[in-house]
Amino acid sequence: MNAADPHRLLPTEPHLQHIAAELLGATEQLPIISPHGHVPAEMLAEDRPFPNPAELLVSGDHYLTRLLHAGGVSLERLGVGGHAADPREVWRTVAAHWTLFAGTATGYWLTEELREVFGITTDLTADSADEIYDQISGRLSTDAFRPRALLRQFGIDVLATTDDPLDDLHHHRTLQDAGYRVLPTFRPDRFLDPGTSGFADAIAQLLAAEAQPGTFTGYLEALRARRRHFIDHGAVSTDHGVLTPDTIDLDPAEADALFHRVLRGAATADDAHRFRAHMLLQMAAMSVEDGMVMTVHPGVFRGHSTATLQRFGPDTGHDIPVTTRFVDGLRPVLERFGLEPGFHLILFTVDETTYSREIAPLAGFYPSVYIGAPWWFLDAPDAIARFRSAVTETAGFYRGSGFIDDTRAFLSIPARHNTARRVDAGFLARLVAQGRLTLDQAQRIAVDLVDTIPRKAFKL
């Protein structure tokens, strides 16, 4: 966790390290493009000082809290899910258990944040916890550490958030009027999944918001209208968190009957699956119509711990990856839209066995399919290197999305992007040393990975 080492994460072999350092030099100061993440627009729009180090760096970061929980620390003690906790005690708890994070990406990121954002070089230990807490608190009280100032300091050129379809998006408009390119992302999961709590009520709200009748056609029109609202506020993409990336093409009469069954609560498990799969296909159809990029994040068993979900809510560390298959499930949507000009479908996974077997071959044929960067559990140095090895020989570098930080932890964004740039520099250095790329080619690719490629994939 030596964040002071300029060669951190680069290859250790001297000849490779020299090449990688030169490649890193071409990208390290380039602006950050973050086209998918979960930083709340409200925080940036209101631009209030961050309250304290614990709330900023710990309580909302499930990467941190889940491993502490595994080590025997209660989530209440960490202030998760709105539970009251003394922020200094939360920070002391992290410091006392810091050895849990040795060798993890989470430990590396936080170390980088402390050094690069706050200028703190002292190792985090139980003895240094209060000193570091006070140093962070002092900086957070200054204007230089307010959200918008940090957005500029981090060099973030584009930042996308993830938003409910019924959001009025006034925070995004405020930021855009102030010159910040903060874009909403359309996340319709609660309106597409009959298994979601309150599904029928959500559909009623959606229909009412757009004055549409309670028919399947009215439902689709309401979704189209909300998508237009997002596009009018700068959105370029939609996001779909599904358990399986299955798609089904139903005829209109069957889809209408299925819609009414799920609304009445009379749907079987198979009905619910078919409805989700058909709606994923309908979202692709709408992306063909309106040009929004479609991102799919499948393969996560959400709320694996029922007790934790009920007590602390979603996104608090208890989501677990599952095996994911893409080829069969996506065939219906690719049969209809895979060759459509302008359709962009970005596939993410937390099952890295699919990279070389399914995702890279799909992206290596269909012009509409792009390879999503390593996401959640795979956005760590060694996993990023495995990802590059798995997909590059089949699909090259230019069928990808660029790095995606996918984070709620605002201050970790520069650390995460710098991690990806360093690992990619190391991967490219090996290709140069092996004579598979020239240094000039590698430099161009290194720059494109952080600029041209994400701008193209996300239509920026």
Biggest sheet strand order reads 4-5-8-9
Radius of gyration: 22 Å
- The secondary-structure class comes to alpha/beta
The total of helices stands at 21
Gross geometry: globular
**Helicity level:** 40-55%
Element layout with pairings:
Layout: H1 14-25, E1 32-34, H2 41-46, H3 53-59, H4 62-70, H5 87-96, H6 105-117, H7 129-140, H8 147-153, E2 156-160, H9 170-177, E3 182-183, H10 189-192, H11 199-209, H12 216-232, E4 237-242, H13 252-264, H14 269-290, E5 293-298, E6 300-301, H15 306-312, E7 320-321, H16 327-337, E8 345-347, H17 354-363, E9 369-371, H18 381-395, H19 413-433, H20 439-450, H21 452-457
Parallel strand pairs: 1-2, 2-3, 4-5, 5-8, 8-9
Antiparallel strand pairs: 6-7
Helix pairs in contact: 1-19, 1-20, 3-5, 6-19, 11-12, 13-14, 17-18, 18-19, 19-20
Structure description:
This protein is α/β, with parallel strands linked by helices. It is 51% helix and 7% strand. The chain is built from 21 helices and 9 strands. The chain has helices at 14-25, 41-46, 53-59, 62-70, 87-96, 105-117, 129-140, 147-153, 170-177, 189-192, 199-209, 216-232, 252-264, 269-290, 306-312, 327-337, 354-363, 381-395, 413-433, 439-450, 452-457, and strands at residues 32-34, 156-160, 182-183, 237-242, 293-298, 300-301, 320-321, 345-347, 369-371. Helix 3 (53-59) packs across helix 5, helix 13 (252-264) crosses helix 14 and helix 18 (381-395) crosses helix 19 (413-433). The longest helix is centred in the middle third of the chain and has 22 residues, at 269-290. The protein is globular and about 65 Å long. The model has no long low-confidence stretch (mean pLDDT 95).
